[in-house]
């Protein structure tokens, strides 16, 4: 795909697509609840559609009328075995959370995905689930997908210190703990996104998080009741336009209905720290959403480390681009988890942005970026990673000359209308969009 810079900036209002983490979980909780769940503003991106299809295969009736997704819950005891391996594409969230759900089911399931998923570490989930009494194995006894899950109806509760800060691992253990008899305690290294915990409460279940935000207690077995879920916009998708608005001259963007769960808003804290011209309005505390206005900004470098990292882990590639336009040295550390995302995002971010002239150096656990540097067009590659693809597309809008983005289709994992939305904000889209 050929991309050229914009001289007029980006302007207008954008409704941010639905939250990926919440969309996945709405299908899962809907399936495991008793009664009907309706989901409005579900993200129809490839990852969440993989979750939807997987639960259909496990015998859960799910319909989509184009507006509302309706899930007829089957309860924890109603899932059915599927006799061939289930393809869940590129989605780490789908495979890891389903491992926790299937650990408590009295049948065998195999889950597999694409080449990227086949390289992602699964021991972090398999080890605690095996301790609880399920039997999970990877391809040829490795920790990599395809993963075969021999579930057990007699899971034991577990006390577990998470070795990595990961909401996917935490959530997988929670899903298994909900099916075990007794109380499980999960202790996090750093607090991570809490959508699973929030949804347990929304669906009528119980879970406690200690005041440190890192110790979670959950008792099994539990039952859930179907709910109406309205998914807010994804701050991780908004991030691309927050940064685009800040770094592209003559820009002003209004982003509506953006999720502001505090476990996800690290990018807001960092952008304010970097003196971005960013404001939040219309805070809707009940739906945890807000409207955000971003204008072209004069930016200062910063250091990003420690407890904030899980609150912005998916935003680090686009924050790295932001830092290329800030004055001074930005240091990102304690982010080694970036190496095991859809790509090694430390390497991918540094290598692709260097092609465009950025002064960016990969480290063992992050990136060091010296700014500001003018960027120039180049042939760059999403490497099949949606967030790397979108970051590079935003970079192309300030780069001198033409950029060629390889594998742009990766964006459909979380943001199918990404390129159309850019066109619209550049004033080139259809009038009625
Ligand atoms: C997610 C958790 C994070 C995040 C991913 C979605 C979730 O992964 O990167 O995009 O929905 O729980 P980790 O748990 O591996 O950090």
TrEMBL record:
Pfam families: EPSP_synthase (PF00275)
Keyword entries, A-Z: Amino-acid biosynthesis, Aromatic amino acid biosynthesis, Cytoplasm, Transferase
Domain Enolpyruvate transferase: 8-421
Cited Gene3D superfamilies: Enolpyruvate transferase domain (3.65.10.10)
Enzyme Commission identifier(s): 2.5.1.19
Residue positions of the active site: 314 (proton acceptor)
Record: residues binding 3-phosphoshikimate: 20-21, 25, 166, 168, 314, 341
Subcellular location: Cytoplasm
CDD domains: EPSP_synthase
Domain of life: Bacteria
Signal peptide stretch: none
Reaction(s) the record says it catalyses: 3-phosphoshikimate + phosphoenolpyruvate = 5-O-(1-carboxyvinyl)-3-phosphoshikimate + phosphate
InterPro entries in the cross-refs: Enolpyruvate_Tfrase_dom, Enolpyruvate_Tfrase_sf, EPSP_synthase, EPSP_synthase_CS, RNA3'P_cycl/enolpyr_Trfase_a/b
Pathway(s): Metabolic intermediate biosynthesis; chorismate biosynthesis; chorismate from D-erythrose 4-phosphate and phosphoenolpyruvate: step 6/7
Residues bound to phosphoenolpyruvate: 20, 92, 120, 168, 345, 387
PANTHER family linked to this entry: AROM/DEHYDROQUINATE SYNTHASE (PTHR21090), PENTAFUNCTIONAL AROM POLYPEPTIDE (PTHR21090:SF5)
Function: Catalyzes the transfer of the enolpyruvyl moiety of phosphoenolpyruvate (PEP) to the 5-hydroxyl of shikimate-3-phosphate (S3P) to produce enolpyruvyl shikimate-3-phosphate and inorganic phosphate.
The family this protein is said to belong to: Belongs to the EPSP synthase family.
Oligomer and partners: Monomer.
Identification of the protein by name: 3-phosphoshikimate 1-carboxyvinyltransferase
Protein species of origin: Enterococcus diestrammenae
